[in-house]
Amino acid sequence: MGLPEVQFISIEEYLETERNALCKHEYYQGEVFAMSGASLPHNLIFKNTFINLGIKLQGKTCQPFGSDLRVHIPKNTMFTYPDITIICGDPETLDDKTDTVTNPSVIIEILSKTTRDYDKGQKFTLYRDINSLKEYLLIDSESIRIEKYIRNTDDSWLLRDYKMLTDRFIIETIGEELSLEEIYAGVLK
Question: pTM of the entire structure?
Answer without folding.
Answer: 0.90
